[in-house]
Amino acid sequence: MTETASKSQIAIALYQPDIPQNTGTILRMAACLNLHVHIIEPCGFALNDRTLRRAGMDYLDRSTYTKHLSWSHFVSWAEQQEKRLVLATTKASKPFLDISYQSNDILLFGRESVGVPDEVHERADARITIPMREGERSLNLAISTAMLASEALRQLKAFPS
Predict the structure, then answer these.
(1) Which one, out of 57, 92, 98, 149, has a CA that is 20 to 30 A from the CA of 130?
(2) Is the CATH code 3.40.1280.10 the one for domain 11-156?
């Protein structure tokens, strides 16, 4: 796993993920789509190859991610890199299809169990949601991540060749 991040391509950030299988699946998807993943700790599991290997399989060796020790550490890094934080949340009203993605975007996703706290909502540069049938709470984190990453890559014409 390499821990370098491109300044000119969208990336994914996971805020204190709870479920190693989702994180492994997201790392696998990111490896296939050539996306960097930022994992904001603390996680709800031990963040190591053993816990991620089941879902990520052999793709973990081709994935790139950076661990950030805390939200404040991540925000400092993102500001230095001039990144725009795009938060996926059920509390937003703007659909993810109605935003113009930028190459400096980081698509930010909350914990599977509780989402993100108010300070993360307030810091996000944009907040978007995936429209769902009324009465449904949310989609699986890995599915949501794939949907938003695919739309951002489509708009930016940035799918790997």
Answers:
(1) 57
(2) yes
